[in-house]
Description:
Number of strands: 0
Structural class: mainly alpha
Oligomer: single chain
Number of helices: 25
Largest sheet: none
Helix content: over 70%
Low-confidence stretches: 1-34, 415-421, 470-493
Strand content: under 5%
Amino acid sequence: MGPRLSHGGWLWVFMSLLGAADCTYHCLSSSSDTQPFLSLTQTQTWRVESDGGCLKPLYNFAKLFLESVQPNPFPEDIISTALKTEQLDIPQLVRYEAGYIVCLLLAVLYLLVMSVAGGVLAWGHFHSRKVELKNTQSSSLASLYHQDIGVAACLVLVNILLLTGVILAFTVNSRVSENMHPGLYHVETSARIIEDSLTSITQKMKVIMEQYSIPKAEISKEINDADDIVGATIISSFNTDVDEDLTDLSASIEDAIGTFENLQLYQTTRTDLQANQTTLQNGIQGLQSRVESLGKCHTCDVPNPSNLTTVANYYLIPSVDDKLNDMPPASSLAGLIEQGNLTFHDIPQKCSEQVAPTISALMSVLNETQEELLNTSHRFPSLESLIEAVSDCKTTVRRFADPVDYYDFVRAVVASSVFSWLFILLVYIVLFFGGNAHTLGCRSWSHGQLFGFLDQQNNIFSSLNNSSQGFNTSQSLNTSQRPNISQETNSETHQIQPSTSAIYHGCKSGQSLFHSMHMEQHFDLEDFLNASKYLDGFNETAQNMSVNLDGLKLLPDNGRQGLLSFKQCGIDSINYHELLLLLSTPVVKTDLGVFADELDKKAEVPANAGIKEDLKKEAETTRYLNTIVKQQQTNAAKMSQIVSALKTISTVYKANVDKTLESLTQTEVALHNQVPYIVGNVSQCIMEKGEQSLLRYLDWVRHAILYKVLDCHWLAVSMDNVYTAVCLNVVDPLNAFWLCLGWCCAFLVPGVIFSIYTARRLERIH
């Protein structure tokens, strides 16, 4: 299978906004509105607010205590080993939790000391009353008074601190209980948002690729209309010239047909005139002879026939048979105008036939480009492993949500009901879990140590490197198959681990996930969206668009030969002036009608009684001859019109023929010469508009991928929400809770001691 983008298919993929017939001359005048691409929906997030308020100093004090108890950094080795082997390294864990072990030992020691102190106090209370009375009697009253005041003050102070601790303990206990369930919900919701957002990246990429159908539909239409554009452009460019040429041709054809018809009428009328002249001359001569015979009667009154002669000699009219023989038949010229119009307006059909292979090739490139676009988009870096990690996290949160919630319920019940020496054990348990939650989660988060640990987990971004390897391999294969497309081939594939801290801070600052995860090291987006690499092969295909009109003739050879024959017929050699003079000459000297009337009058004269019948007979003959004279006059007038028409045509017909042949020749030559430029201009116009559409589409794709598909503001907000919901709203109150409990525990025994001591003092006074 040959190279698929060697034709530069991208341009025809996005060749929209083609003009109509004026595309050749107005390539850049069409609308450049943005394509109506689908707007991608972005992930909607909201921030979880912290409710620390006035308790923040207490939270900070608890954090300072935890920092002193467990100053160790995030235990990456311990957790990594546990995740890989599912076993804990107990010695390392003990060393890491040494601070809490010390706290446990101190708590046990405290319990032992307080137990011993309580026993001593009880023994002293029940067995040393005599000693106290004796000592009281021996001591001074002032000294006892000061001691009582000091003990009472300590008791008040301890009770105030104890009461404060109890109030704060119940307050933060209420905060923990109130925030535990919403906190778990926010954690699960944030994990779900992150998972859904990462999952939607693939769907959004698919939507972007599906938007290819918009320019494809438009460009498919424009590709199919390209032949019409070329044909319409040619028609509009030469329509005026061809109309003028055909008008000139029509004038020459009218001259030729008119000449042919007039010459035929000329010959017919000439024959009639000469035939009638013979009859007329013979009749007049006979009439004259007979009338002269009748005039020999000396007693008769006969009109003088001396003026009975013909004047016009129609035998002098020359024959035009030679010119008729040189004239082309009217049938050979009659259809030239329609034929020229039909030939000219058949140009779009010829264009369609000749452009069809190029259009077919471009449509093939259009489809191949769509396939290449989809194949390339499938090699976009995969976040499947990250999605799986987030999904596992969400599943874990969901699995432990109920136990944690139950633990909180038990803790609250125990905190409310247990008030004994076991109270210190509760304090330690809460301290251990709350402290480790703060140290392992919250503190490592705020100090960035948790990001460093995540960076060591190769499986989180394993799909990213796997897709990069597939992309480089395919890139190498495509480069070998398509030498005209510039792509870099990596000889070695380097495993690249994105920085989770950079991802978080990049997303928080508004960067695209593409840049935050350094996806440019896995997927060359600029090369993918580089329009120039798709244009070279396509330009070559588009430039193959051509129309050859070498065989096109607006005037066929027989028509051209007919006009040349007409030009050489020689009608301009006829002496029209002499003919018109001849035809304007009277037919006879005497008006035969008047002469016939005169004969009738003479027949009624008494002196002419003997020749009356002869005179009447000659009058009738004269009237008959007069009808021939009138026919000759009519034919002469008709002949004059024919000669005048021929005379008019003879003055312009050669110039008209020359102009017609020259203009038609120039138009045909211009068609042959200019059509390649017209086709080239249309093709160039199409490519320029297509390039503009391509750039607009690729700009939209770049913006959509970077700021719609891979927008990750939601990621920073969701992670901040997890921190707020867990650390600020649950862990901080929880740590403040054990701190207040420990506070109460620390001052409970001294409070009891001071209370007993004060009671003994009061008893002694009484």
